Amino acid sequence: MRIGPSIVRTPTLLSKTLSALTGAKVYLKFENLQFTAAYKERGALNKLLQLDDAARSRGVIAASAGNHAQGLAYHGARLGIPVTIVMPKSTPTVKVSQTEGHGATVILSGERFDDAYAQALVVAEERGLTFVHPFDDPAIIAGQGTVALEMLADAPDIDTLAVPIGGGGLISGCAVVAKAQATPIEVVGVQAELFPSMYNRINGADLPIGGDTLAEGIAVKEPGSVTSAIIREIVDDMVLVSERDLEKALSLLLQIEKTVVEGAGAAGLAALISNPARFAGRTVGLVLTGGNIDTRLLANVLLRDLARSGRLARLRIRLQDRPGALFHVARIFDQEAVNILELAHQRIFTNLPAKGLSLDVECETRDKAHLERLVAALTAAGYEVTPVELA
Question: What family is reported (predicted)?
Answer without folding.
Answer: Belongs to the serine/threonine dehydratase family.
